[in-house]
Amino acid sequence: MKRLMTLTLGAMLMASAASAADLRIALQDDPDVLDPHRARTFVGRIVFTSLCDKLVDIDANLAIQPQIATEWSWNDDNTVLTMSLREGATFHDGAPIDAEAVKANLDRARTDEESLRRSEVASISDIAVIDAQTLEITLSQPDAGLLSQLTDRAGMLMSPASFDADPGQNPVCSGPYKFVERIQNDRIVLEKFAGHWNADAYAFDKVTFVPIPDATVRLANLRSGDVDIIERVAPSDLETVAGDDSITLASVTGLGFQAIEVNMANGDRANNPLGTDKRVRQALDLAIDRNVLNEVVGAGTYEPAYQAFPPASFAYNPEIGAEGRDVEKARALLAEAGHERVAFELTFGNNTIMQQVFELVQAMGAEAGFDITLRPTEFAALQSALKAGDFEVGQSGWSGRVDPDGNIHQYVTCEGSLNDAKYCNEEVDRLLNEARTINDEAQRKALYDEAQAILRDEMPILYLFYLPWPFVHQAAIEGFTAYPDGMIRLAGVTVGE
């Protein structure tokens, strides 16, 4: 629903950092549960970045940095990770962040039935507490991507005392801001945690996250002073941003992708031509012109994608997708599969950009023999539908991970936590599992190339474009840096005179 926020921050933006002004951040969607082990949305990760500390983090150049873990080391065969923890750090309930608490979090992430982090930390076989500030993490086999996983939700730390008290609705975490309240589809309010080990780096007393799905309305709220930072400005609005001296663009190339996934075995709705015949999926892929999506919707910022790995990744294969759009070949594949036309429903999160993207997909598909019904829904409802198998084809966006494993494994392995299509190929599992155990990038890329050859043939996921991360903030805000993972980190961010 389009709306213009009514609370004005103009006076606050005129104040200095010393006044501890409140900060309002407009998100494209409303997050799902505020439990990092069970959450699945990108916007939820933005909230978690202020709410929950992690064992390690990344800097703007993707280098892994200390957070709760201050030092770490591997044994000679890369199967035991020893971590030293920061002294004096506490959870929001005052409990110490010690080795026992970290072990409890990692155990929950890897064993809880509702955890979506299980595949991310599946290599962990045992966790031993050495002393209050030291733990040893033993792996069943080397895992080249584990540290990268611990820079995200798998490494986030909640108070173990909150595990049985529905942390998704009332999270008790460890970050620079603590939970105050949530009103679904309206706001999430956090307040500064004075007991945080790095509290002096955070200038704001309160941070409020406001979901505003319409990109143009988000920008209007920023320009009016009702919010201070917005994420994912629409490409069509970039010219407006450039012409307004009161706001500042901070953009960076991201690690993630926008895609659609085909329900192949997740309940009764998989029983359709797309779900049962790869030729129909291949035809749909050939019907889509990614360059048109880039030019018309992305204004040149949506680099076409045919695979999970962005060009910056060592695993990227430039040969994939070189054929581009081919309507005649798409029609021939449909005919070979015994269809003149194929009808299906495409479920997606309802915002202005995705509406434009999928209206174009609908039109392009029609030219190739597909009758596509669009089913827009609230973003949280989309996640529920995907998980429950209540879709034929569904939007699948991923914000990307530093290690290539994070962009592919949990989406296409048989037991992957985000494999909503329920696609399963034992050879793909073998290749991706082996790639996790090797540190040599050339050897890993060879395995990824083999896996991608299978995936391009069977096509459980059709990649559309890579995601840029364009943020816009009030010009009075200082110290803001755009990170390639799309997160908003508020350490050192202030409001100038």
TrEMBL record:
Keyword annotations: Signal
Residue ranges constituting the Solute-binding protein family domain according to the UniProt record: 64-416
Signal sequence segment: 1-20
Pfam families in the cross-refs: SBP_bac_5
GO biological process: peptide transport
GO cellular component: ATP-binding cassette (ABC) transporter complex; outer membrane-bounded periplasmic space
Cell compartment(s), UniProt: Periplasm
CDD domains named among the record's database cross-references: PBP2_NikA_DppA_OppA_like_5 (cd08511)
Superkingdom of source: Bacteria
Main location: periplasm
Record-given protein name: ABC transporter substrate-binding protein
